[in-house]
């Protein structure tokens, strides 16, 4: 009776070990990509970069004269530059997490192989 349980647990464990890389680079990779896309959307919402970029040439406070347009353009230009820096930083953080998801299993297996060889 105990042998049946042991055999079942052992077979499921072996199957899971061989299925783990397949899942990691198929469904898991898709989930990581969805998370990366969510992070980029959050970065855009947090920084407001696209919103400020679309309104770059719209005069602030309804000032449609020449001086108002020039002042509004340069004030928004500084805002767009600052918000682009924030957006770029958050985008790069998300990209690093996505790249780490892809590369960490490869690096772990590589290190295990070289530890066995002795290099």
Describe the fold and architecture.
- The protein is an all-alpha fold.
- The chain has one domain (22-117).
- Helix content is 86%, strand content 0%.
- The longest helix is centred in the last third of the chain and has 52 residues, at 66-117.
Properties at a glance:
elongated, 119 residues, 0% strand, 4 helices
- What's the alpha carbon Rg, rounded to whole Å? 26 Å
Indicate the low-confidence ranges by residue numbers.
Answer: none
Distance between the termini: 45 Å
Order of helices and strands: HHHH
- Our estimate of the beta-strand percent is under 5%
| Topology, number of strands | 0
Q: Which class best fits the helix and strand makeup?
A: mainly alpha
Give the overall pLDDT as a whole number.
91
Continuous helix count? 4
Shape designation: elongated
The helix fraction, in percent, is: over 70%
């Amino acid at each position: 009776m105990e042998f049946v349980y042991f055999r079942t647990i052992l077979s499921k464990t072996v199957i899971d070990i061989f299925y783990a890389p397949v899942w990691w680079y198929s469904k898991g990779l898709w989930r990581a990509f969805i998370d990366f896309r969510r992070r980029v959307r959050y970065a855009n919402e947090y920084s407001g970069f696209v919103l400020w970029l679309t309104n770059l040439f719209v005069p602030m406070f309804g000032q449609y004269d020449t001086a108002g347009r020039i002042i509004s353009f340069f004030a928004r230009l500084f805002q767009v530059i600052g918000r682009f820096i924030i957006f770029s930083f958050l985008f790069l953080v998300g990209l690093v997490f996505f790249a780490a998801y892809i590369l960490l299993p490869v690096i772990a297996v590589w290190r295990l192989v070289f530890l066995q060889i002795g290099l």
